[in-house]
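Slide 14.
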Amino acid sequence: MLKQRVITAIIIAALFLSALLFLSPHNFSLMTAVVVTYAAWEWANLASISNKAVGLLYALSVATLLALSGYVLGLFTPGSVSLDTSKSLMAWLAPWWAIALLWVQGYPSSAVIWGSCWVRGVIGYLVLVPAWLALVILIHAVQGEWLIFVVVLIVALADIGAYFSGRKFGKHKLAPHVSPKKTWEGLFGGVATNILLVVVLGILLKLDPDQWLMLLGMVSITVLASVLGDLLESMIKRHRGIKDSGNILPGHGGVLDRIDSLTAALPVFTLIFIYSNFQL
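Slide 15: predicted structure.
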């Protein structure tokens, strides 16, 4: 099982990096839209949409929203995407994760609010569409490939740090009703691992003290957002009574199981990035 998981992870990483480095921003946006649309198919199951035809319609509705939001952003017109529109979209969409935090904290009681099929369907829109828009905004920014790589690296290091720190020191449960294996010690380990990343980036990029503090804030908030994204999907899966969102990725489950942390980390990082004018 571990060997299968490692092989799948290597293949995913290779495909992602190849797309990030060799596809144009426009084609990268289209490729990730396909991935997000498939993730919407999996989300239909999380929303308890058991009819496959209805699930397909749900996935197509997400694809339609991606196309409309891409059009509003200027993705289908020559030139770069609109910065002003990017700011407006992220300012409206990213803060929804504050509501998600309250729901995760309040689980299982909060299920009274979001537990119905149609509300979980709406949550899927709020999870998937802003994440894709954040990718589009970043990939069209100056050194966009580097920015996306940094976000993915932040999330990966947070997972690695949380795993080892949680196994070694974990005693205090972070969200026992949602994900019993996650601990506060694991969270602190994920943050600590990323502090090392901040130090390395600060040295390599020769940042001044103000830039160091800005980078530390961006990275720390992105780590916390990634944990929330993971917890939200775990909460929905627990309510649904399933372990994985799908089985398309051997040893990993579904696409959503691999991108759940990124669905929150990407919009939050992008919101801070475009409003701070901070350059990595």
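Speaker note: The radius of gyration is 18 Å.
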